[in-house]
Specification:
Blueprint lengths: L9 H26 L6 H21 L5 E3 L6 E3 L2 H20 L4 H23 L4 H24 L8 H23 L9 H40 L3
Antiparallel strand pairs: 1-2
Helix pairs in contact: 1-2, 1-7, 2-3, 2-7, 3-4, 3-6, 4-5, 5-6, 6-7
Amino acid sequence: MVTFPDDYPNSVRHFLLIGFLSMFIGAGCFFYMGVNRKVNSIMHTVVFFICAVTACSYYANWSGLGVEYKTSDETPRVIFWSRYIDWVVTGPLIVSALALQSKSDTPTVISLSGNVVLYEICSLIGAMTVAPYKFMWWVASLIFLGMVFMVLMQRLNNPEGYGGENLQTMTYLVICCFCMYPIVWIVGSEGTAALGLSQQTGLLCITDVVVKLGFSFLLLNSIDEETAAPLNQSSQQYV
């Protein structure tokens, strides 16, 4: 009888705990930055929810919730299905924030968010399905993810959109990290199980921290740079 979290390898529990603490601290920092900011910004709320939802997901996995011991495959697999629920929420928030920062219109935001949701749904169904059918769901998820990348690159190269190094850095960061997830899926427990559970959990933890905390700090930094000039100009009026 397999029970979680008792049957987790120690390294898996450590990575899950690191992910939870990183996102919990990040959510606290972003909340503090938001309430102490003179000019309210929706982006502070967005990055707070990104980290808060992910922290809940990691804590659920660490405590043994949101995880399934899949025995329908030839080799038993451990599936962390709660992280797909996490990404159904946080994925659209990330791409929507990136799109809004590039001054995208509403149809573009909806397209990006919808494709991310479909990507995650296909990945989840594939994770719960046996071979060879699950690999078709993985291919379908790649198609939706490719659409996301295509729209992001179009907005990055659009001269009417917001430019600058911050937008380029954030876009490439999101694309590179998003590429890691289907790779880990196909070599991890959901796919071929060629990768050990500890290595899979560690890679996902590192990628989550980079794409969510790194993206959030870059996003808030770009907002501060945009608002710095008008704030300085208005303060000079009273000198």
